[in-house]
Amino acid sequence: MFSRIDRVNELVKNTLAKIINEEADIPTGIFVTVTKVDTSRDLRYAKVLISIFPENKFGEMLRALRKKAYFIQGKLNKQLNMKPLPRIDFIPDHTESEADKIEKILKEI
Asked: Partners of 51 in the beta sheet?
């Protein structure tokens, strides 16, 4: 059974992924994925973990998303029918690249 926070996290994650992919003007060949959302217990803040491929565009795209955070927040607020609305903060998620490094090391062994 999912708790309320789990359901809110999933709702915010899916809604943000849709907004980012449709409205964030992401250049061709760059993939931005919302990997996880961690909402605070009081529902006022949400850490949004972002994965970006290719890895060398990570910093550039994270800065672009943070610049557009106000716009993305506004779109999110319009689409979610809940109070309070969590304030989003984009956090880098390097899980994929770390997993690739570990996999390469294991193959060498």
From this structure: 33
